[in-house]
Amino acid sequence: MNVIIGSDHGGFKLKAVVKEWLEAQGYQVTDVGTHSEESCDYPDIARLVAQPLAKGEYDRGIVICGTGIGISITANKVPGIRAALCGDTFSAKMSRMHNNANILAMGERVIGQGLALEILETWFATEFEAGGRHETRVAKIEGRA
Ligand code: RB5
Question: Which domains does the chain have, with CATH numbers?
Answer without folding.
Answer: 2-141 (3.40.1400.10)
